[in-house]
């Protein structure tokens, strides 16, 4: 089934002669389009300005920031905050730790989530419903801080390992149910066709279902990756060895340290740059995870349009 | 025939995504195992201190993060400690903002550690009531150096119902709120309240870019008290509160059961009126309610302010080096808000803000041994200031000059009044005031010195009064609202929140305490 779109006053595509390129080039944009571009452009610019001010502020000398506030361009250029952040090996260890937690955690979480979601979505008797209830309960209740702490530290003995950060976040019930909903949208006929061709359940899952589920996999991966990247509280509870601190915890420590520095004697370097450090930390923290969005973007778009062109 | 069409599209998609199930599984497994192999192994509970061979070190939880040059310093400390008393220290640093919650969790989980910082403003009341802290009442006297370093007045004032639940961590006998100001902006010596107010006006007139006085969102009643003209004549009024952020009661020192809400205290009302006047004249910053103390300190160090509130902890001049980099020639001085200056004998409870508490589930004797060892000047200096010659150098008999970025949170483990050195950058006036604050005889003992109110019977009302204080008292103390209208609103809100019940409970507890004291 195909559709043909025609514009008022013009011939349908394919029924007239070749359209001169010059004529297309001279076509004047509609007023609404121009206005839209201007409004959206201004909105985009308005969104970028605060971010740019953070960048500019992170390179502005602390004394200027403290006296004059933020500006669009560093009036007294300084890299003191970045030098403070990147001095020593701690920040590089922390990047590695966060990378490890994010990559391994995301892989484990996506595999676990789609696995459990697929079993729930299959509506198999005896397993799907209990599993759905089992996954649903943590959406309403949590084990509480103390029991979870006891489980991780005294039963699993995961202190000072990155698994103490990964395991408590391994499965997010909400995302499992989002995935279940997606799986239930896959036409049963596809699966029946595969069965007719002799495919088993695992083959159907890996060769049919997962390839069809790239949009939801991208969504899961992005959500889990962002959550793992930003995770610091479990690391705070379970990791006491500074060599294993993830980035967010290291930076959290750095900023609370500077904020509480007034309770301690000044060091040889004097008072740490509070303003500049906060801004520089924002840049250092958001950089890597920001790169994940462009990669996932095309799957989001595809997710919205999937099936739209097929009748 | 829809099936073939759909199947074909699936096949195309499949080919572009996953080569095979086996490849996916093996790839994922290999990736996980490979990355899992990347984390080096870590002994449990390790990382922040040295360990004695064949034995566990004494684990202590402290706020903050590892100081610069920590491994070298703790190595040297542990080497000497091992040789002297046969044990070592493993100090683990916990994030400052979550410190109280983490320590409570470790106590609740019955973890084995020896000591930690705790305080009434954290969860010490809860820990004492659940018998989670070692009773040190009879232990201090058994350790010669420790008992010598802790004044009897300090021990007595920090007993709760006659029992000592932690080692008080103070570097002075008293903590007096007063003023710190840019001396280079002053025309002459500031000696009284009027000259200080004139100083603020002159700064505004001569230096329009500088805000004369800094207020931030962490100050409240203390600011009103220091700015009160009555305080200059009659040193700080006695007050008590069930919790730090709540609305307390002013107490008549001659009859401690004679109490009234702090907002009815003349000292405080007069102080609020002065602050309002300063606010309207532009002599204090107008963003006090949203300005956090760290940012305010940074702005002071950058030269935005001429004066601010300080306390007698010897840290009032800590921003001098940064300030002088931003404003060459800048200098600092301190001023006590008393007409009689150092001859005034203000009331003091001598109650410590912080305690080194000992976990009964840990090794109590070992923790006390370490506290005793840290009460010797040489040992104290090594952990407090780092390695001499590398991290610090002595400056005179009782000062030190920092040579590195090593900064240790001494208030959490080893503050001893007579052992603390002052930073070499301390101003002459601050040094004088700090030295004065170290002597117990310079203060009048508060009639409620050993009184620790129990909030349990009025917990709900106290929580509501804390909200009232945030909503009404803080704006008043920053000068942001009209005094009479603000006080009226505060009074009505406090009455609605149950101030009468809170006062009655306070009166009952004070009476019981006084009866117990005889």
TrEMBL record, chain B:
SUPFAM superfamilies: Periplasmic binding protein-like II. Residues 447-514 form the DUF3502 domain. It comes from the Bacteria. InterPro entries: DUF3502 (IPR022627), TAT_signal (IPR006311). This is DUF3502 domain-containing protein. It comes from Brachybacterium phenoliresistens.
């Amino acid at each position: 089934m195909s559709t043909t779109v025609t514009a008022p006053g013009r011939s349908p595509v394919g029924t007239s002669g070749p359209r001169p390129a010059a004529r297309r080039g001279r076509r004047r944009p509609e007023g609404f389009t121009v206005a839209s571009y201007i409004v959206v452009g201004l909105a985009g610019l308005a969104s970028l300005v605060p971010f740019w001010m953070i960048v500019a502020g992170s390179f502005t000398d602390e004394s200027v920031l403290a006296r004059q506030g933020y500006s669009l361009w560093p009036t007294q250029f300084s890299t003191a905050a970045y030098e403070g952040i990147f001095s020593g090996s701690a920040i590089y260890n922390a990047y590695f730790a966060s990378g490890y937690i994010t990559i391994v955690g995301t892989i484990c979480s996506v595999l676990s989530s789609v696995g459990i979601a697929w079993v729930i979505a299959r509506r198999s008797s005896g397993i799907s419903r209990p599993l759905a209830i089992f996954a649903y309960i943590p959406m309403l209740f949590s084990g509480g801080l103390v029991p979870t702490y006891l489980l991780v530290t005294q039963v699993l003995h995961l202190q000072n390992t990155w698994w103490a950060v990964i395991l408590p976040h391994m499965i997010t019930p909400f995302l499992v149910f989002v995935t279940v909903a997606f799986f239930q949208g896959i036409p049963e006929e596809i699966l029946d066709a595969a069965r007719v061709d002799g495919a088993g359940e695992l083959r159907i899952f890996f060769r049919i279902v997962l390839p069809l589920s790239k949009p939801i996999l991208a969504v899961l991966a992005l959500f889990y990756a962002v959550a793992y990247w930003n995770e610091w509280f479990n690391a705070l509870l379970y990791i006491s060895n500074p060599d294993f601190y993830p980035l967010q915890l290291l930076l959290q420590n750095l900023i609370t340290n500077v904020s509480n520095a007034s309770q301690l004697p000044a060091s040889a370097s004097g008072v740490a740059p509070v303003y500049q450090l906060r801004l520089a930390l924002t840049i250092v923290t958001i950089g890597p995870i920001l790169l994940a969005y462009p990669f996932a973007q095309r799957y989001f778009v595809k997710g919205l349009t999937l099936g739209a062109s097929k009748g | 025939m829809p099936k073939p069409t759909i199947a074909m599209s699936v096949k195309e998609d499949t080919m572009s995504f996953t080569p095979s199930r086996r490849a996916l599984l093996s790839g994922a497994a290999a990736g996980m195992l490979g990355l899992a192999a990347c984390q080096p192994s870590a002994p449990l509970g390790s990382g922040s201190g040295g360990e004695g061979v064949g034995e566990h070190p004494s684990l202590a939880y402290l706020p903050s993060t590892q100081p610069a040059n920590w491994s070298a310093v703790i190595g040297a400390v542990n080497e000497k400690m091992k040789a002297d008393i046969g044990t070592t220290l493993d100090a683990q640093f916990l994030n400052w903002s979550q410190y109280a919650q983490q320590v409570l969790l470790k106590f609740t989980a019955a973890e084995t550690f020896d000591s930690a910082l705790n305080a009434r403003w954290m969860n010490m009341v809860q820990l004492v009531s659940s018998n989670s802290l070692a009773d040190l009442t009879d232990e201090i006297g058994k350790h010669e150096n420790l008992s010598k370093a802790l004044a009897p007045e300090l021990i007595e004032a920090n007993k709760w119902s006659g029992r000592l639940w932690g080692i008080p961590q103070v570097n002075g006998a008293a903590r007096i709120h007063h003023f710190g100001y840019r001396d280079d902006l002053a025309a002459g010596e500031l000696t009284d309240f009027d000259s200080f107010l004139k100083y603020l006006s002159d700064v505004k007139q001569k230096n329009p870019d500088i805000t004369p006085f800094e207020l931030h969102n962490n100050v409240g009643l203390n600011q009103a008290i220091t700015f009160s003209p009555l305080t200059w004549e009659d040193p700080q009024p006695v007050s008590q509160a069930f919790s730090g952020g709540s609305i307390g009661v002013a107490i008549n020192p001659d009859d401690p059961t004679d109490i009234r809400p702090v907002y009815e205290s003349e000292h405080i009302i007069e102080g609020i009126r002065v602050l309002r006047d300063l606010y309207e004249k532009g002599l204090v910053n107008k963003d006090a309610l949203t300005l956090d103390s760290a940012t305010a300190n940074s702005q002071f160090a950058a030269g935005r302010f001429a004066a601010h509130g300080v306390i007698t902890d010897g840290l009032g001049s800590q921003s001098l080096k940064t300030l002088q980099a931003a404003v060459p020639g800048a200098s600092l001085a301190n001023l006590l808000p008393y007409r009689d200056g150092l001859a005034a004998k203000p009331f003091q409870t001598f109650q410590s803000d912080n305690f080194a508490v000992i976990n009964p589930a840990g090794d109590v004797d070992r923790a006390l041994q370490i506290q005793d060892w840290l009460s010797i000047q040489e040992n104290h200096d090594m952990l407090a200031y780092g390695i001499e010659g590398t991290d610090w150098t002595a400056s005179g008999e009782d000062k030190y000059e920092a040579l590195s970025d090593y900064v240790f949170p001494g208030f959490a483990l080893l503050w001893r009044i007579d052992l603390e050195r002052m930073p070499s950058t301390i101003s002459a006036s601050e040094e004088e005031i700090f030295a004065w604050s170290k002597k117990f005889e310079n203060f009048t003992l508060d009639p409620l010195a050993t009184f620790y109110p129990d909030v349990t019977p009025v917990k709900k009302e106290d929580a509501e009064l804390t909200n009232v204080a945030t909503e009404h008292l803080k704006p008043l103390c920053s000068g942001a609202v009209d005094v009479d209208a603000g006080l009226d609103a505060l009074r009505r809100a406090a009455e609605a929140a149950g101030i009468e019940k809170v006062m009655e409970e306070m009166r009952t507890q004070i009476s019981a305490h006084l009866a117990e004291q005889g």
